[in-house]
């Protein structure tokens, strides 16, 4: 039988091939095939719709919006495509349009799980947490065993300060498949006295989460019993944190992930500790006592100029592997106007792939880059201790500065980490932290303008002997 030629393949046949490529994760090839379909048949609604999905997967959000709108020209009001359009609009911070699309889709198909779930996520991105919670609970009612809405419900509850419910719901994270399985099955510690036993506390998310919850480790030891038969606490955490945590009360031994631990009787994830101790804004221990070794302080003195200028550390991006980093991170060029304030010196504490942004922006001459010279959080802590102020978008360094009690201005996108709730300039978790919030999603310029004005006031306060305030 003669082989098919391109001319003999119908748009629907090519669509099936494109969809198969798409399903296998061959996104670029799928996009090429969808474009070919649309050249052959510009009115192919599936081609436009699936092209939008593929473009969004690739991160081409604006193009995805166009593709979805072209599909809706062919099938006006289609709720599935309208909901997908809402997702892409949310991605580019066109939240009013996104919410309108999701409302329309949910009104048309109120019993569709995906539509209700996506509506809930969009409401959360708009910092409308009560409404988000209602939509997420509607989605859960439609599909009770789906883990991701349960996890997102937990985050909404924490945003609303409903901590007891939130911590219980927070355990849904273990059902999502997003966290690695533990190497062996060991009973979970629930807060009971563990005299005569060994308890492994393990980190399971980012560095910042470990720093945040390290304040609860001393409370664990209070339930270990007394005397020679007291329970032992083993903390599993990554090497860059170990010097920093070495003097936290209640830790008997530290190990790195993957290191042989030996036998232990119980385990607890470090981010489950707030639930174990029923933590809330009103029941909140102070940050842990973090250790800064002498060698780290000596290194900080070498890295920082020893003068009386106002020294500001800056960080513009968290971990690039964190899926929400795109909205909380900014370009380093946003920070450069701070160097225009008389008396200010900027020091870049940025580490990782984004540390090269400074030279790429041509700013290496006006900002001193020291982040890649810091080999641990203890060394970063020593630098922060010697700075006058840290100004940054949210990441682990914010938790570090806040735990040290050093002045930290945390610049927040519209939908923040739950810790910072939905409004206000302060957080009880870190009394030395000031929060600068986006009023409108994606609108960073007013935030940076305000920070620059307040930075000038801070410099004047130091000259007058009133800094830190």
From TrEMBL:
Q: Which UniProt keywords apply?
A: Repeat, TPR repeat
Q: Name one Pfam family in it.
A: TPR_16
Q: Which InterPro entries match?
A: TPR-like_helical_dom_sf, TPR_rpt, Ycf3
Coiled-coil segments on the chain, per record: none
> Which stretches are TPR repeats?
11-44, 45-78, 113-146
List the SUPFAM superfamilies hit by this protein, alphabetically.
TPR-like, UDP-Glycosyltransferase/glycogen phosphorylase
* UniProt superkingdom: Bacteria
Write the protein's name: Tetratricopeptide repeat protein
List the lineage, top down: Bacteria, Pseudomonadati, Pseudomonadota, Alphaproteobacteria, Rhodospirillales
């Amino acid at each position: 039988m003669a082989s098919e030629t391109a001319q003999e393949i119908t748009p629907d046949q090519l669509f099936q091939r494109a969809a198969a490529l798409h399903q296998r994760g061959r996104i670029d090839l799928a996009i090429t095939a969808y474009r070919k379909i649309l050249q052959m048949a510009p009115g192919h609604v599936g081609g436009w719709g699936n092209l939008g999905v593929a473009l969004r997967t690739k991160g081409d959000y604006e193009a995805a919006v166009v593709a979805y709108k072209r599909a809706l020209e062919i099938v006006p009001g289609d709720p599935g495509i309208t909901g997908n359009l809402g997702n892409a609009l949310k991605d580019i911070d066109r939240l009013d349009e996104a919410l309108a699309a999701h409302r329309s889709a949910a009104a048309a198909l109120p019993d569709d799980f995906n539509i209700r779930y996506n509506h809930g996520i969009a409401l959360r991105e708009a910092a409308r947490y009560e409404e988000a919670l209602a939509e997420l609970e509607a989605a859960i009612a439609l599909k009770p065993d789906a883990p991701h809405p349960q996890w997102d419900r937990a985050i909404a509850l924490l945003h609303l300060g409903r901590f007891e419910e939130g911590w219980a719901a927070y355990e849904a994270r273990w059902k999502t498949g997003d966290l690695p399985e533990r190497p062996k099955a060991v009973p979970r510690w629930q807060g009971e006295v563990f005299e005569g036993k060994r308890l492994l506390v393990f980190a399971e998310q980012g560095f910042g989460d470990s720093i945040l919850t390290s304040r609860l480790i001393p409370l664990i030891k209070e339930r270990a019993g007394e005397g020679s038969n007291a329970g032992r606490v083993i903390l599993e955490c990554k090497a860059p944190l170990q010097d920093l945590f070495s003097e936290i009360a209640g830790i008997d031994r530290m190990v790195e992930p993957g290191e042989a631990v030996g036998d232990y009787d119980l385990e607890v994830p470090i981010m489950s500790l707030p639930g174990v101790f029923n933590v809330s804004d009103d029941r909140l221990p102070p940050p842990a006592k973090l250790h800064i070794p002498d060698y780290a302080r000596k290194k900080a003195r070498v890295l920082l100029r020893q003068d009386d200028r106002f020294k500001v550390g800056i960080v513009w991006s968290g971990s690039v592997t964190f899926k929400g980093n795109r909205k909380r991170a900014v370009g380093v060029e946003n920070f450069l106007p701070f160097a225009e304030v008389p008396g200010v010196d900027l020091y870049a504490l940025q580490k990782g792939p984004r540390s090269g942004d400074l030279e790429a922006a041509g700013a290496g001459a006006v900002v001193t880059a020291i982040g890649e010279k810091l080999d641990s959080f203890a060394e970063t802590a020593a630098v922060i201790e010697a700075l006058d102020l840290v100004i940054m978008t949210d990441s682990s360094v914010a938790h570090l500065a806040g735990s040290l009690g050093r002045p930290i201005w945390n610049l927040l996108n519209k939908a923040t980490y739950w810790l910072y709730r939905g409004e206000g300039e302060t957080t009880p978790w870190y009394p030395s932290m000031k929060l600068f919030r986006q009023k409108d999603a994606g609108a960073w310029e007013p935030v940076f303008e305000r920070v620059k004005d307040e930075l000038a006031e801070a410099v004047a306060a130091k000259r007058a002997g009133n800094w830190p305030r």
